[in-house]
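Take just one protein record:
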Amino acid sequence: MATSNQFSFNPPIGQLAISAFARCGVKRTEILAQHMDDAFNESNYLQSAWGADGITFWTVQLNSVPLVQGTATYTVPDNAITVLDVYISNGSYNRLIFAFSRTDFASLGNPTTQGFPTTFWLDRAIPQTLTLWPVPDGTATYTMFYYTYNQMQDAKLPQGGNAQLQYWWLDAYVAELAYRLSRIYAPQLEDKRKVDAKEAYERAASQGEAVPLYIFPGLTGFYRAS
């Protein structure tokens, strides 16, 4: 059997848009500048929605920042949607630290206490910031490492740009884009395109991180409040 022995199929976003229009019954000879402008906008709205869903795990990035004694708050990169795991290194070992809420931070009796940080508060303002507690002290040289879940790079149709996608998300991208474009150009097909988009999305999203799941029963004591 003769196979291609190639693994380079990655159509540019313009070609993905043409495929999406085809699913809406719009032939490529009928596509005008207005069509492509709508495809440009809907591609980026699509990516924004996927970012909110938290499924573009290929955009996860490890960041590092040296900590300064007495400085609690550090700015998160602008393209970060949220922060995932955070750990602190003192040069000898790493310590995973855990998130707490705005309310937890506000309830601290002494938020300026210094020590080895054990918790962080992610303030999701613009820009987002990470605030550590205890505040880094001067007993060691600390480096904070943290993973950010980032937004996808902007979809740009001109110059043959590609979407920032894993291979197995290509069909989901086209299906979702077709569904969005059907609202404009083929409302009679919107329900069908929605079903296609949902099926393609769920298939692609099933390719998660292959790690075992452990469930442990809570064996500590409990009491009933009166």
Observations:
- Residues 7 and 167 are 9 Å apart (CA to CA).
- The first strand starts at residue 60 and ends at 66.
- Residues 57-150 form one domain.
- The mean pLDDT is 92.
